[in-house]
Amino acid sequence: MTHRPLEGTLRPVRPHPEAQWEGPPAPGEVDPAVLGALLRRHGWQRRGGAPGRYGRWTPPGQGGAGTSLLVPESRAFPDSDDLLSEALVALARSGTPSAREVLVGLTVPSDEIRWWRDVPSGPAGAAPWSVQEQLRSGARQMLLACALATRARAGYYGARHRRSAAALLESVLVGSAAEGGSLTAFVPVAVARPLAVRLHQALYAAREAIDYQRATGGMDAFDGAVEAGVSRELTEALIILVRGAEGARIAVDWAPAAGVPEDCAAGVEPVEFSPGDLPVLREAGARYLREEPSVPVRITGTVERMRRSGPRGEGAVRLRVIAGAEVPHVRLTLDEEDYRIAGQAHLVGLPVRVHGRLESRGGFRRITGAGGVVPVQVDEAERDRLMKSLQENLDFFEEACTGED
Fold it and tell me: How far apart (Å, rounded) are the C-alpha atoms in residues 18 and 348?
């Protein structure tokens, strides 16, 4: 169903590919150099082998005993496919968490993001439930904040761009945590590398802005950090990760098969944040919330709710946004004439267009100074759908349009 507003274009809907886990890749699809790089990244140790031909790798924590893999250094080695096949089978059968993470990196070439929270462990190294929940909550919010920054740059997003940012996260895979205080996410290069790049740059910009504030007392560096992806949403994610911990670290490792993206560094240390950073992060978040301006908009949407206190005068309306702003719904107050037009448009199955200012207060969910309501023509299929929706909620709209409460 396609809307045809009188002006402007509709928000495009992009099909989102999903990364599928279907077992290890075929040996012929594996680059031995990439496999070696992933093994090294995940703590495997090379312990001998024929130089220039193959190496013997053992998993972390075994001191050379137990499982080992023979991995060719290149496909020039005559038996490279056989060795790769045996190595892939051994990884698939291994109970080592790092083995599955290596397989994920081979199957879905991904940038890897790691979080660590330094917290006291429970009995026998077990982590309290709340520690793991806090780690996952902070990590997800951080990914969402950086996904938002791939859509636009803002100090505070509120409800804006949430739908497209959340869709970007659908391709991210979660690795097995070796312990309660760590977590790994695999960000597929093909669909979500901009997310990993934005996170990498935003973390360093946030760290530099915090250091600047703690050294000089000035918050100016946070203004420039917005361009790198720092926002209130990111500061809130960092607060979640650091609060109640001795510190938190975040690292981004680039997919060996894709190389290092432009304007990013390879092999850098994790970015660290400590409890001493919390006051600055809270101040920065409040500053972003306070200073993000409202924006003029012209929105096309369908009426979902109408309410006023009597049969005359202004009334409140809720619209489902079709075009004009990257938010799913908005609320607005209309004068008597515009309220009447909005009600009539809905009764005949038409969206409306309205102009005003999308207010940052409340998360960009309200339009102030709304006016100029006009019906918008749509195709027959969409009009039929709207009329069906009206019939399902006819009593509500009859009450709303007559002012009965």
Answer: 39
Question: Tell me, what DSSP letter sits at residue 311?
Answer: S
CA-angle at 192, arms to 186 and 193, nearest 5°: 85
What pLDDT digit, counting tens, does each position of 371-402 carry? 999 998 877 666 666 556 555 554 444 444 44
Surface-to-core class of residue 43, CB atoms within 10 Å of its CB (0-12 exposed, 13-18 middle, 19+ buried): middle
Over residues 107-118, the pLDDT tens digits come to 889 999 999 998
| CATH annotation of 295-402 | 2.40.50.590
CA atoms within 13 A on the CB side of 197: 15
Residue 285 one-letter amino acid? G
Sorted by sequence, the CB contacts under 8 Å of residue 286 that are 6+ apart come out as: none
Taking the C-alpha atoms of residue 306 and residue 301, their distance in angstroms, rounded to an integer, is: 13
Q: How far apart are the first and last CA of the chain?
A: 34
In the block, tokens 């886990």 appear at: 21
Residue 378 DSSP class: B
Name the residue ranges covered by the structural domains of the chain: 24-106, 108-292, 295-402
DSSP string, 242-293: HTTSS-EEEEEE--TTT-PPTT--SSPPPEEE-GGGHHHHHHHHHHHHHHPP
Statement: the pTM of the whole predicted model exceeds 0.70: yes
Task: Report residue 212 CA to chain centroid gap.
Answer: 27
